[in-house]
Amino acid sequence: MHMEPTSFSAESYFETQPPPPTLEHDVEQVREFVQRQAKERRNVVLVTSGGTTVPLELNVVRFLDNFSAGTRGATSAEYFLKAGYAVIFMHRQFSLQPFSRHYSHSTNPFLDFLEIETLKGQSTPRISVTQDKREDLLEVLTVYKAVHAAGTLHTLTFVTVNDYLWLLRAVSQELSVLRRKAMYYLAAAVSDFFLPRQKMSVHKIQSGKGNLSIEMDQVPKILKSMVDEWTRDGYIVSFKLETDPDLLIPKARAALERYGHQVVIGNDLHRRKFEVVFVSRKPLPALPPGAEPVPDALESTFVESWLRIDSTVATGVPASQVKEIEEDIVAELVRKHAAWVHAGQQA
Amino acid sequence: MHMEPTSFSAESYFETQPPPPTLEHDVEQVREFVQRQAKERRNVVLVTSGGTTVPLELNVVRFLDNFSAGTRGATSAEYFLKAGYAVIFMHRQFSLQPFSRHYSHSTNPFLDFLEIETLKGQSTPRISVTQDKREDLLEVLTVYKAVHAAGTLHTLTFVTVNDYLWLLRAVSQELSVLRRKAMYYLAAAVSDFFLPRQKMSVHKIQSGKGNLSIEMDQVPKILKSMVDEWTRDGYIVSFKLETDPDLLIPKARAALERYGHQVVIGNDLHRRKFEVVFVSRKPLPALPPGAEPVPDALESTFVESWLRIDSTVATGVPASQVKEIEEDIVAELVRKHAAWVHAGQQA
């Protein structure tokens, strides 16, 4: 599979890679959802969540993937809903989802807290929830039912990085009608590399013919297109995940510099549950007309603020009462977004 | 990441690649489980299920994966339990599991069929199951509780292909004490390739430095070691998944020829839910002492038998009544295994 690498701009990407078959249907549903929220004057946030795959074969058996259970996205979506936002939850198939995330089949299987009760004089047994889980489940279920009744959560799924890119472009374009009232919370772990359709093997790559060698192309930097073309007024939050703490802030700054969006939330793979850093641009001081900014001012163009929660969890605390860092992340973004909306009304 | 490929035998693999940290603990639990089943005179089947990952970094962000939701393994495990087997269910973390598989958070989320009932004169509302789901859930829950009470299901998880290989070797060695009463149902989608630890990048591979190129080594053929060393008397069933139907039988025969185990179940990616083929060796005709087998007999050494179910599902049929091909696969294997156990007692 050794071939010459190609360089893709966002434009050439969409010209050469085919859209997912469900795109039109998905976009129509998003359009209806956005129209309804606009009428009801709600802010809308697009939350992307989970990893993307890069299939190596057209009849896909093998793929490259990015590590992400979808915890950040699913948890944040719940807090956005609680803050009164409507949420478009665009997630990797089978990654965690708001509400059901509390009941992972591996760590907290719901079948374990259901009981069969045989009642006197009744032929059919009743299914009930064990005492110790009742309160937590009731809390989750109550919010879940309320959100469904209000119609403020819309879920979309993707699998491949190609699905993701096409969906992101289309949803951004739909959301752009809300101007500054739209937020983009891009928590999905998106592959930096992909295999163009034109280079994919049709059938399962056969082993027994030696070792596997894959050469992938770079995914175009679509944040630039979002800011410049798809949704000029949207409030865009991207994430940087690194394993080397020394790279976190330099890479976050470089992303803001390159794409010109609003916030990068940096997180270290091993500390992400209780520590993140918000990196954004400092508003430049007002200069007298005609004055040039001094070099010093340019060097301190960025501002970082750390957000931390206690990393120790007391034993015996019910799950619903454990503090989650996403609560504070969302609260901070809601504040920043309100200021952004306000500034837009002033301008 | 271009380096010279190395060729690994099973032996050199385990000499150079580190065991997963939980291995010893996992093996101890398996040992206790096997001892208990031996006392209670149950047959034990090891069911492996789900895909394996190949991490590209030591601090893993990216990995190669194999497509597998774990449906075949999780479904078959249920039928083995119903047939009276004890099951060691060794599966990829977050892949489907027996019983809970019926309630995928994506396609059949359990929160949707719970209701909150506020009862007269009671301050705390009650959680109950909606009428239309009650019967199915009661059936699943009843078997689930019975299996837990009998202690016939033991679950192990793996993530990487390295976890899988170490666990498979250790569990096979533990199960080998049961001799012919142990079955191995190897439904996991195991990577043919891996990246030796010595070649892995410590931190997240940085993009922006051009394209990604990965060169992987072949995973050693551990089925050969299972048959020859780890569990000489076990009844071993392996799977072949192909996307090119013309390769299915030749590749299944080649596997039997090379490894010398009992059955290969071949399935085509797109038809696997309603069609599989059992490939095994034909018992050779008894020859007069001193006679050489004729070439013709050698050519027809293999026997194939197709197993098919109706691929159309009538609408309105409750989920618990939809026919699953795994029911017939397991029934056929239980028969074959009984004959194998019987033959062992004759010898």
Give your account of this protein's structure:
The structure is a homodimer of 347-residue chains. Helix content of chain A is 35%, strand content 22%. The first copy, chain A, contains 9 helices and 14 strands. The model of chain A has no long low-confidence stretch (mean pLDDT 89). In chain A, strands 7-4-1-8-11-12-13-14 form an 8-stranded mixed beta sheet, sandwiched between helices. Chain A has helices spanning 10-16, 23-39, 71-82, 131-150, 161-175, 222-230, 245-259, 295-299, 325-346, and strands at residues 44-49, 53-55, 62-66, 86-92, 114-117, 126-129, 153-158, 182-186, 193-194, 212-218, 235-242, 263-268, 275-281, 302-308. In chain A, helix 3 (71-82) crosses helix 9. The first copy, chain A, is globular. Chain A has one domain: CoaB-like (Rossmann fold, 3-Layer(aba) Sandwich), CATH 3.40.50. By secondary structure, chain A is an alpha/beta fold. At the A-B interface, strand 3, strand 6, helix 4 and strand 10 of A face strand 3, strand 6, helix 4 and strand 10 of B.
